[in-house]
Amino acid sequence: MKRFFILLVLALPLAASAQKLTESAIDDISTKMAATFLKLNDPALVFVTEQMSRSGAGGLEVDKTMQDLKKDPATLDAALKFLYQYSDCNRQTFIANLKAMNINSSNVFPVATYTVNKYKNEAKELTDEKAALYKANAIPKAITLMVAPPANTNQASTAALDGPAPANATSGQQPATTSAPATINTTAAGIESADTRNWDVRLVFGMTKPDQLLDLYGKGNVELRDATDFDGNDAGKAWVVYPDTENEMAVVFYKDSTKTITFAGENAKWRAPFGIKPGDPIEKVQKVNGRGFKINGFEWTNGGTVDSFEGGQLDKKGVNLLFKALNTGDPKLYDQFTGEKTFRSDAGGVKKLGVIVEKVEFRTSK
């Protein structure tokens, strides 16, 4: 019995270390991930950042998030989970990736133990998801660009695109260069070749002036037009990228250096934070948010917009969504969700109404 208690006493510190990281380890992993992220071409951090963006764990401006993970324990946990996923949920591979980021040797084992124990029940799901993402090219093995704010934010567009494209350590291939201002190239026979433009909305987040849009997408692809809000009210002027196409995107620059970025094409190619796009069913948005949320009644002031994300993953992240109902043929059903009221996304009848995202808007912070 005495021996049992001795073993128990020895095991307790180990178990505790698996449940909580020290401040030193937190600071170390946060600092080293930030340094690796800023290299822009590390395949592990490219994967982690993409997953942080797709899941919404990185917030609206994921680039800022990746440079100071220690500010939010839940966000740091998500980054470790995705690094574990990138490592095929293999402990030794995970440790090798930690060492590759120059994590202090005294922190490698505690971080690995903490992460593996925390996500061991999700290992199969994570490895299956990684395979599916690569197969669907949702996260390309040949990475063309990893977004991060340059030292001089006034050069956000050119700094992100003019440098040499990084090699991809996962595939061993040199990725194709990105030529955002160009339109789709065609061959002599008039056959369209691959579209090499970069469709990541995050490219716009670090911009501070319209000239950067012109540099990035080409003067012939950007127009200054009247802007309207979700209710159709005057909202000043917007710089519209690819106007009158399915990929139309409006950017409004404000005096306080913030901006709104809006797009509504259901077949648009834009890749946005949280993976939300026009045409997505309300059930997907609820899943991303992690809980039900409130929407303003249709056909009224702010009709179809989100009233509150109710403290979910999308709450206070600069995300604004406009919803529409596809199935309005049943007046009795539709009337339950119209007028001066709010309704919950998980309310009975919402699914029958066929509610989908009509427009997506992001508002950047100062």
Automatic annotation (TrEMBL):
Specify residue ranges for compositional bias: Polar residues.
168-181
Asked if the Swiss-Prot or TrEMBL record annotates the protein with the keyword Signal, the reply is: yes
Which stretch is the leader sequence?
A: 1-18
Keyword flag Signal: yes
Spell out the residue ranges making up region: Disordered. 155-181
Q: Which terms are listed as keywords in the entry?
A: Signal
Name of this protein: Uncharacterized protein
